[in-house]
Amino acid sequence: MPGPGPEGYDAAPFVPEKADLRRLREAAAGCRGCPLYRDATQTVFGTGEPSARVVLVGEQPGDQEDRQGEPFVGPAGGVLKRALAEAGIDPAEAYVTNAVKHFKFERQERGKRRIHKAPGLREISACKPWLASELRLIDPEVVVALGATAGKSLLGPSFRVTQQRGVPLPLPVPDGAGEGGQEGEGAGALVATIHPSAVLRADAAARAEAYAGLVSDLGVAARLLRG
Hints:
- By secondary structure, this protein is an alpha/beta fold.
- It is built from 8 helices and 7 strands.
């Protein structure tokens, strides 16, 4: 099995060439491209059909996703499914994945509870070859970046969800390079919004507004899909 790079942050050696989604998923189960695999239960790869017109990219698996091996099966997933339906996107017709495929967490002091910890730029960059391969195979019309981590993976470290959410943006080519190795744009569009977990974290007074904003941003993606 290939090993990670000198710093231990590079999934590229584990990504098989000319593989379909099934083969990618199988290979990702053995990824050792960054240290996150050591404590996570398993790799959580994307789910959905290769013919999906829209790809939803989240941050990383949460506690429930890590245990069950599927993305967005926890509380944030419930919020996302409801918001998609209200925005006019059938959740069953979307491909759902994360920018980072392993759960990053820290344990609560004197307890067994695992507390989510946001992935860093090295982990986002290390895992990008998996996301790039998914996007190349699916070639979606629209990609929705759910939160800052997904946005940084797709658009670079300067991305700010508060400044770039809810508007159609050019979708970079999946490997981040165009002709001659320069940054380029693909044929699809990208729409950024908050991660659905932000709705759950909001206090009672702000929760309805946060949810309405999520639905509104997803509505932009829905209109793009309708043409």
